[in-house]
Amino acid sequence: MLVAGNWKMNLDLAAARQLTSGVVSAIGDPSPVDVAICPPFVDLDATFSILHGSGIRMGAQNMHASESGAFTGEISAAMLRAVGCHYVILGHSERRQIFGETNAGVSEKTIQARKYRLVPIVCVGESLDERNAGDHESVVESQVRESLEGVAIEASSELVLAYEPVWAIGTGQTASGDQVEEMHGHIRDIVEDLFGKEIGVGIAILYGGSVNPGNAQDLFSREDVNGGLIGGASLNAEKFAAIVAAAKSVQ
Ligand code: PEP
User: Fold this and answer.
1) Which pTM was predicted?
2) Does 170 sit in the ligand 1 pocket, CB within 6 Å?
3) CATH of the domain at 217
């Protein structure tokens, strides 16, 4: 079980320090659940110092696929590794929709992240129109297959998938347990096909989209749901800790 908080473009340095300290004390010992927080780039260094020794890991929200060079405003995998990141979120729907990221681009980033031993959290998910048209399974299948094109892993722990239906992100409209279970089963079949049964069966598939302390336990207890990617609720230490507690209760 992995519970990861995506802070998005929120919290300046002082606020990030405060929330990180709050998360550390509200969660205590995270085991046996894997817990991570993903602050904005400029907060990573300070966050890492506060997380040190807590058992909570850190991730970034994006990165560039190249090694280094003339990419003004971008951040490399090596830089993320150097400030203590364990995870990196790739292909979040906000990156796909607002910044035009493609499956091919996500695959390049995923390959580069692995080169630096970052664990990519690769996000996929259909829009409301795609679900209403009954295309959600094929859309997500293409996203998974194309975003993981050329990606090689040797163990399940080297890759995380996050199913985040776009219509459920930040809307308060959570996907139902049955919808989540159905899609996670579909994604499990795809990763078993891509990486073999032994590795595919152990890859964590997170659900994301309006997870809160009230719905987390039901979602996390569903087949093939191995935790959550948490947006809004991760900005509140008590709510985030309650979601981690829900994950512990079903682990
Ligand atoms: C997200 O953006 O990854 C997310 C799941 O957001 P929220 O929990 O706010 O819906």
Assistant:
1) 0.97
2) yes
3) 3.20.20.70
By three-state DSSP, how is residue 37 classified?
Answer: strand
Q: Which domain holds residue 239?
A: 2-250
The answer to whether residue 64 is catalytic is no
164 is catalytic: yes
Q: 121 with 89: CB under 8 angstroms?
A: yes
User: Counting atoms of ligand 1 from 1, which one is nearest the CA of 6?
Assistant: 3
Q: Which of 101, 158, 164, 181 is catalytic?
A: 164
Per the structure, the count of domains in the chain is 1
Catalytic residue among 92, 136, 184, 186: 92
| Protein residue whose Cα sits closest to atom 8 of ligand 1 | 231
Q: What's the token pair of residue 102?
A: 């493609």
In 3D space, the residue among 61, 55, 27, 25 whose CA is nearest the CA of residue 43 turns out to be 61
Q: Tens of pLDDT along 73-91?
A: 999 999 999 999 999 999 9
> Hey, what amino acid is at 38?
C
Tell me the pLDDT tens digit for each residue of 125-152.
Answer: 999 999 999 999 999 999 999 999 999 9
